[in-house]
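C-alpha cells as discussed.
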C-alpha cells in the first residue's frame, strides 16, 4: 500500500475546504490513495453534529459554520495547524477507536518534538498539557484507565490543564474526513466566546503561551510527518 499523500494547502477558507473534503470522500473509490491535507483557516467557529447553540456564547464578527463532524463547537484561526486525514479505514485495517488513538499519538509526538508533554484525558478527546508544568513527564491522575465491566465512563476532569489540540472526525463508507487542530501561535481570545468542545470554562492554550515559539511551518511539517507515519496501515 502506498504512503499517505501529504498536501500543504496554505491558508484556505473553511467552508470551501469542508465542501472539497465531502466531494473527495463521495467520489473516492477503493483505488483512491489516502491523503492528508494540512492548512490553516481564517477565523471561524465550527459546530459539530452534537453541537448545542448555547455553547456559542458571543460569536461577534466571527462566522459560525455547521458541520457534520462529531463533537461540539471549536474555533479555527491563523496560527493553528489543521490536519485533515482522508483515509480508507477498511483498507488500512483498523477501526475508528484506533484511528482516534493514532491521531492523538501523532499530536503527542509532535508536542514532544518541541519538548512539551501532551496528555489524554479520560472521557474527552483531544490533547491537553499541564498549565503549571507543560514540560514535566508525570502521569495525569485524569488519564484514561481500564474500567471494570459495567462501570460508567468517567466525567472529564480538566483541573490544571489547558487544551492544545482538538479532534473532530467524520467517517462515511469507512472513509475519514475532518480531523485535528493543533494550536501553535494564535489569537486565543475567540475561545472565550464559546464553551470549547462543549465544556464551560475549559482553558485553551497554544505553544506560544507556554513559551515554545515554533514557526507554523515547522509545526505543520512535524505533525504531517507524524500523522502520515501513524495512520499508515
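Sequence:
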Amino acid at each position: 500500500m502506498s504512503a499517505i499523500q501529504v498536501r500543504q494547502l496554505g491558508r484556505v477558507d473553511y467552508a470551501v475546504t469542508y465542501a472539497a473534503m465531502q466531494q473527495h470522500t463521495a467520489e473516492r473509490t477503493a483505488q483512491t490513495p489516502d491523503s492528508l491535507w494540512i492548512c490553516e483557516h481564517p477565523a471561524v467557529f465550527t459546530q459539530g453534529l452534537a453541537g448545542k447553540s448555547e455553547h456559542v456564547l458571543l460569536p461577534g464578527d466571527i462566522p459560525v459554520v455547521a458541520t457534520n463532524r462529531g463533537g461540539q463547537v471549536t474555533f479555527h484561526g491563523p496560527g493553528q495547524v489543521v490536519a485533515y486525514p482522508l483515509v480508507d479505514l477498511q483498507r488500512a485495517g483498523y477501526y475508528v477507536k484506533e484511528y482516534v488513538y493514532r491521531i492523538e499519538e501523532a499530536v503527542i509526538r509532535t508536542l514532544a518534538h518541541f519538548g512539551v508533554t501532551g496528555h489524554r484525558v479520560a472521557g474527552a478527546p483531544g490533547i491537553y498539557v499541564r498549565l503549571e508544568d507543560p514540560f514535566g513527564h508525570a502521569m495525569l491522575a485524569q488519564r484514561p484507565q481500564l474500567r471494570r465491566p459495567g462501570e460508567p465512563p468517567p466525567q472529564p476532569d480538566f483541573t490544571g490543564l489547558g487544551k492544545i489540540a482538538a479532534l473532530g472526525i467524520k467517517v462515511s463508507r469507512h472513509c475519514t474526513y475532518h480531523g485535528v487542530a493543533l494550536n501553535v501561535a494564535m489569537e486565543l481570545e475567540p475561545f472565550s466566546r464559546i464553551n470549547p468542545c462543549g465544556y464551560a470554562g475549559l482553558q485553551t492554550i497554544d505553544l506560544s503561551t507556554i513559551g515554545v515559539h515554533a514557526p507554523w511551518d515547522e509545526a505543520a511539517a512535524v505533525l504531517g510527518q507524524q500523522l502520515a507515519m501513524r495512520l499508515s496501515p
